[in-house]
Each structure stands twice: as structure tokens, then as C-alpha cells.
Amino acid sequence: MIDMNDVVQTFSSSDPSAISTSVKLILLLTVLSLAPGILILMTSFTRIIIVLSFVRTSLATQQMPPNQVLIGIALFLTFFVMAPTFSDVYDEALNPLFDEEITLDEAYDNASVPIKDFMSQHTREKDIALFLNYSDVDRPETVQDIPLTTLIPAFAISELKTAFQMGFMIFIPFLIIDMAVASILMSMGMMMLPPVMISLPFKILLFILVDGWYLITYSLLQSF
Description:
Layout: H1 4-12, H2 16-41, H3 45-59, H4 67-98, H5 104-121, H6 125-135, H7 148-187, H8 195-209, H9 212-223
Helix pairs in contact: 3-4, 3-7, 4-5, 5-7, 6-7, 7-8
């Protein structure tokens, strides 16, 4: 457990290396505290987890796969998609900062460059214009001139729309199976039998035959 008195004494000391170590520690704690928000709103995690949730809902398999499995898959797919961006952030910002080659402000500016590049590629101009008009700021000339306070919410709602579009396409074949099963049951006079109970094995069979998880993963990777 960290003793704040030790941290204060370290800053009060005249040893530059001790001060540098304390700055690194505080920076690390800050990043860790903001990690959930950063992961959800500034990466591909939102789109991936929503699409995977749509898959489970369309199959009507209740809690299969479990939430832990879906979140785990979404996390590792996010790390895979964001690997080039994270690598650029480390090379351009974190590594020089730890080597004391740049200041903290310069590291922040360098880290925002690859992140803005990634988010801008998957953000609609309409969404960016919405927040720019609301904040009443001058139209930026380049992507790097857009503040993160504007780009992050624009990226978030763009990701939500894209995820729901993909989820709609996933629902269609399973909806057709549900409608066909319901029509057959009604024609047979078996109206008291829940159609979902009969259509579930057919939907699972269809998902297996078309190698559904491969297609879903392929579609997600291609969308980035």
C-alpha cells in the first residue's frame, strides 16, 4: 500500500531520479484509474461487445456464452485491433517520457496523435459536426486540431450506430427461422408450444454450419 507521506517526502527531496520515479508512479495510477473509460470510449471495444451481445440475443441462448466469455473475447479482439495504435503511443509518448526525453505535456500531445487518427477513421463527419456546433468552436483544419472532448463522444455514437447496423444484419436470418417455425406450429394447431423452444436448435445448427463465430470475427476485423 502506498504511503502518501513517502510520496510527499520524495517530492520534497532534491534527488531528480526520485522525483522522476514518483511522477511515473502517479502517472501509472492515473492511467489505471481511467483505463475502463479509455477502453470503452476510445477503442474498438464498444463495437465488438455490442455485436457479440447481438449474436447471443439473436440465438436466444440466454446466458450462453456467459458474459465473462463475451467480455474476454471482446477484450482480446480489442487488443488485437488496437495493437498498432498502442504501439505508436508507446513509441512516441510513453517510452520517451520514461527516458526523460520529453515532458509530460509533450507526451500527452504525442499520445493523442495516433489515438485521434484511429478514432477519426471510424467517426462520421455528421457526429463530429454535432459536437463542434454545440461547443461553438472554429472549424478545425485537420483531425489533430479536433479536441478530444469533441472527438471522443462523436466516436462513441458513431460506434454505436455501426454496431447496431451489424447487429441488425445478424438478426435477419434468425428472425426468418423464428417466423418459419411459428407459421408451421400455427398451421399444425400447436399454438400453445413456444416457437422459440423449437427454433433454438435450428438456429444453433445454422450458426454451426456457416461457422458463425468465424464469420462474426471476420466481419468485425474487416470493419476496422
